[in-house]
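Re: that backbone. Tokens:
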């Protein structure tokens, strides 16, 4: 209310416009977060004597599929006096919110209140920090956290630099090594349950991997889940026979994967971007009767040799396509 995101409705019986919709809300508590530990969530799909707000809005095109985290509900006690507020800005929680968010990210390279950037030198990183600090202070904001892989920030800025690891849009980042880390152990533990069901397989297959680094693992889970659908097995029916044996093999391979670490900086170990004589983007795609995939590599050529780096990949499981149609 103090920041102008919502405003007080003095008389709920007198409103602007022809139609008004009241949004039910609750609090989501995440105690492990360093910044916002309590976030208010609004339910725009709730119906009461008519269509919901989401029923009346156009969703908008999807730029990306996003996996949402698990939200813990912690409703407050009802206050003795009800205060009516209305939004003065974009409402987050309605069906078009993902489109508005992704469009903003695409245009500004900023995810809600986090920005990702970089520079060729440590001096450039320091200048970037100063620019962030100045721009945010002009808007009345305080730069709460700033993480960098160089030593210049360690010298001049004492701000979360004691952390050896940090998360960047949900992906673990080893700051000193400047590497992205994928921990498969938690997924392996989730898969290692007694009496697995199709619901367990679905939960294991929802590995957060926006870059597509783990697709050799996740595509096998997708194929297996599709075969479970074809077998008409129920969501909570335990796997038996050949399906159970194949699942156990997948689980054992998953648990052996452990950590997967890749360099965040594509030109690391090659003398930097300026030492590269030639670089090319190489894309490949292929299909089979069970799946199809596309992958992009960055090929760099220096005086010491040629290096090929995985940038991103995507996989899909076609429902009824033949191999020719998939290709």
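Recovered sequence:
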């Amino acid at each position: 209310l103090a920041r102008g995101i919502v405003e007080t409705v003095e008389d709920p019986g007198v409103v602007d416009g022809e139609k008004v919709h009241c949004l039910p809300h609750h609090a989501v508590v995440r105690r492990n977060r360093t910044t916002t530990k309590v976030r208010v969530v609004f339910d725009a799909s709730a119906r009461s004597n008519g269509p919901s707000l989401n029923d009346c809005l156009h969703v908008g095109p999807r730029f990306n599929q996003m996996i949402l985290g698990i939200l813990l509900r912690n409703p407050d006690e009802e206050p003795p006096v009800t205060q009516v507020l209305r939004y003065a800005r974009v409402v987050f929680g309605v069906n078009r919110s993902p489109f508005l968010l992704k469009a903003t990210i695409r245009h500004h390279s900023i995810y809600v209140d986090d920005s990702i950037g970089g520079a060729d030198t440590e001096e450039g990183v320091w200048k970037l920090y100063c620019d962030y600090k100045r721009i945010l202070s002009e808007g009345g904001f305080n730069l709460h956290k700033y993480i960098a892989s160089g030593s210049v920030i360690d010298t001049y800025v004492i701000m979360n630099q004691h952390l050896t690891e940090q998360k960047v849009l949900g992906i673990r980042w080893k700051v000193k090594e400047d590497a992205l880390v994928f921990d498969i152990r938690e997924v392996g533990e989730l898969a290692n349950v007694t009496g697995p069901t199709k619901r367990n397989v679905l939960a294991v297959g929802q590995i957060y991997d926006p870059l597509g680094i783990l697709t050799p693992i996740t595509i096998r889970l997708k194929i297996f889940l599709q075969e479970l659908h074809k077998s008409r097995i129920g969501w909570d029916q335990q796997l038996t026979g050949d399906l159970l044996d194949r699942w156990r093999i997948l689980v054992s391979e998953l648990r052996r994967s452990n950590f997967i670490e890749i360099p965040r900086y594509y030109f690391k170990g090659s003398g930097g971007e300026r030492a590269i004589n030639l670089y090319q983007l190489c894309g490949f795609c292929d299909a089979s009767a069970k799946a199809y995939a596309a992958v992009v590599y960055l090929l760099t050529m220096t005086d010491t040799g040629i290096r090929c780096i995985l940038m991103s990949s995507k996989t899909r499981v076609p429902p009824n396509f033949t191999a020719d149609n998939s290709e």
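The first strand starts at residue 6 and ends at 8. Residues 63-80 have pLDDT under 50 and may be disordered.
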